[in-house]
Fold this protein.
Amino acid sequence: MIYFKKVSKIYDNGTVALKDVDLEIEKGEFVFVVGASGAGKSTFLKLITREEVPSSGIIKVGNYVLNDLKRKEIPYYRRNLGVVFQDFRLIPNMSVYDNVAFAMRAVGAPERDVKRRVSYVVSLVDLEEKYSCKPNELSGGEQQRVALARALANKPDIIIADEPTGNIDPEMSNEIVRLLMKLNENGTTVVMVTHEHRLVRNYEKRVIILDEGCVYKDGVYRRKASCDEIRRTNNSVRTELKDESPKEKPSQTELSFGEADSCRPPLPRRPQEQGSEQGSGEKKDGDLQ
């Protein structure tokens, strides 16, 4: 679906935004792209939407090789994408209905189809009662849901969400992600860029971490237990592992950003300390073995 092969992007001022990026996002995947400011997230999205072209490497999205796209072909390619922006980009003097309908009218959809499709996508984001409201009459979360409905209007194969939770509260942030996941369950590929590690921790999904233009990590996030839980079960886990047969190695790394990442077992005590506290020489649960 989305394929990057040795992709680099260097801007005219010498800024290296991406360096030798290799990755593939399959059809129907949900992927978080995470990184600090300047890590290359925005450039990554601009390359997918064909706002920028790579300095080197190959990018394929669906049946399109983006390196070779002619200017007149770009609008047709973008019909396969639905883009959700951090700042909503709604048209201020248009109602919710007309903001969503605008995306379909722009590609010449019949008004009969516009009416039916807009009604459906607005109901998906639970804004039926806000049909006639202007953007300034909506909360930030409601505006973002309108933006999501607009992105869905033309039945895109891929949703690109660029920091969609950046301007809304945590509760609504989770609601937006749940909406994106619902769409993903129906087969839509979703690529969501965010700097909010806390939000990513709530979901066991693939995470691509960009750092200084490179893919630092790429894998499926797995929630870790707390430090206390790990220490309490330390010995029992070791015993179970001895009895288990080797398991097949996963195709992707299992990432974790949870509390347990900062946990470390206590260092072994010095011999004289162990002797004074444990006359039998037995190790405590927390000691390294």
